[in-house]
């Protein structure tokens, strides 16, 4: 894919992966309830987009049909559950396991597209799904077989991370056709607004306070929005206009690797041999699935 941008898309993609990899570390550093951190992460990502949406795309919102609005709402709810489940998983399992498992969403996108949309699953994709699932199983039970685990309840945390991956796949599936008819900024604003409202409901139902946190927590909330949110996913969306989608998709597999390294440096958290071995298998399975879907 040709590009005439003065900024290297490859360098931008690398910086975005680093920014996303740091998200798990910021979540671990936060002492606020996970649902509160997730709420402010999405809220502070959405707010800067509102003036742009009102100024340049105000007339686009009226063109969104009722059917598209329903799918955007479902997409936003799925994204909210993704964030809530994944943020909570980091309280119970290792960073390496949580980030690797939640990154498995391409596997569930392929399964969902086959089950719900009757899309064809190639032999390579089937192998990739099988490999990824076997790696997930190894990660989830291996630590117990070895007698050593990272995290107070690693199996519970791993399940939450998988729920986050399934919900991320639902977010992608619900919004995939929608993005063909709705511009990026109006789509993101609607979906993120629904996501923010859903997370607010989760915070209220959990009985957590929205205020009263020390300055350190607010800096972490902003960091989650600016780092993984604006500098991470926004730059990735920009890179997609200059690089092949297969390159970008496979590059996202660098997040679990980066997060594991950062966790070792900043959290003194070393994953067990079973987590590393199972994680490698999962990443290989994701690679087979994702690279086939984007060819």
TrEMBL record:
Top-level division of the source organism's lineage: Archaea
Segments crossing the lipid bilayer: 7-27, 39-57, 69-87, 93-117, 129-149, 155-173, 185-206, 218-240, 247-267, 273-290
SUPFAM superfamilies reported for this sequence: Multidrug resistance efflux transporter EmrE
All copies of domain EamA, residue ranges: 13-140, 156-289
The entry's keywords: Membrane, Transmembrane, Transmembrane helix
One GO CC term, this protein: membrane
Keyword DNA repair carried by entry: no
Pfam families in UniProt: EamA
Stated name of the protein: Permease of the drug/metabolite transporter (DMT) superfamily
Origin organism lineage: Archaea, Methanobacteriati, Methanobacteriota, Stenosarchaea group, Halobacteria
């Amino acid at each position: 894919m040709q590009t005439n941008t003065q900024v290297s898309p490859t360098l931008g993609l690398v910086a975005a992966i680093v920014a996303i990899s740091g998200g798990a570390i910021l979540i671990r550093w936060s002492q606020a309830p996970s649902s509160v951190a997730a709420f402010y992460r999405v809220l502070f990502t959405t707010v800067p987009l509102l003036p742009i949406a009102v100024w340049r795309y105000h007339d686009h919102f009226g063109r969104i049909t009722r059917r598209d609005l329903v799918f955007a709402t479902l997409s936003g709810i799925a994204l909210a559950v993704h964030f809530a489940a994944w943020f909570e998983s980091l309280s119970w399992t290792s960073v390496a396991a949580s980030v690797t498992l939640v990154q498995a969403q391409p596997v569930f996108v392929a399964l969902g597209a086959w089950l719900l949309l009757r899309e064809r699953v190639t032999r390579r994709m089937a192998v990739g799904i099988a490999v990824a699932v076997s790696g997930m199983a190894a990660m989830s039970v291996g630590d117990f077989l070895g007698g050593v685990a990272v995290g107070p309840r690693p199996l519970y945390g791993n399940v939450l991370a998988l729920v986050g991956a399934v919900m991320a796949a639902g977010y992608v599936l619900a919004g995939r056709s929608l993005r063909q008819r709705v511009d990026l900024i109006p789509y993101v604003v609607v979906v993120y607004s629904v996501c923010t409202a859903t997370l607010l409901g989760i915070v209220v139902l959990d009985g957590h306070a929205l205020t009263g946190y020390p300055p350190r927590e607010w800096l972490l909330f902003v960091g989650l929005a600016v780092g993984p949110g604006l500098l991470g996913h926004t730059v990735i969306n920009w890179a997609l206009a200059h690089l092949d989608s297969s390159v970008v998709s496979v590059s996202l597999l660098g997040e679990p690797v980066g997060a594991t390294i950062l966790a070792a440096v900043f959290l003194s958290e070393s994953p067990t041999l079973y987590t590393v071995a199972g994680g490698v298998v999962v990443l290989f399975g994701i690679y087979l699935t994702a690279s086939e879907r984007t060819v």
